[in-house]
Amino acid sequence: MKLKNRAFFYWCETRAGKKRQTTRKGLIMTDETRQIGFIPMSKNGRRHDKRLLDKVDIIRHIPPEVTIWADTGFQGIDKQHPNTQIPKKGTRKRPLSPEQKQENKIISGIRITVEHAIAGIKRLGCMTQILRNRRPFIDDTFLLLSAGLWNFHLRTA
Length: 157
Prior knowledge:
By secondary structure, the chain is α+β, with helices and mostly antiparallel strands. 41% of the residues lie in helices and 11% in strands. The protein has one domain. The protein has helices at 2-14, 49-56, 98-121, 138-156; strands at residues 15-16, 21-22, 24-25, 29-30, 36-38, 43-44, 68-69, 84-85. It has a two-stranded antiparallel sheet.
């Protein structure tokens, strides 16, 4: 009976999203050439991006002269690293000014290289399909394998 309760607890803890699917979330750090430099172990999909980044504690290892281009899921990272660029968020009461919109376009134009790297990882079919394997850490193994293949593709192309 205890094993069943433990499995149910794990199932409840890993559910995330609108449809309450069991998901995993990971961080990816890339450079301007779309090379993947750092991938920590993935965690439950319910965990917030900033909380996951704080748990990994990689920010303190990045030199201050390196610029971090993050998305809005990492609000508060600018307090940990002095050279951080995050898009501004507008509200209904305070919409963004045209200068802020232009700045957000510049930031998203630079951040698109990360999205290209994520698309390169998804070229391996197992990263886009539902993972039915129950082996521990097999999702991290697939992620590292697909990231290595993507980096190899970038070096040889």
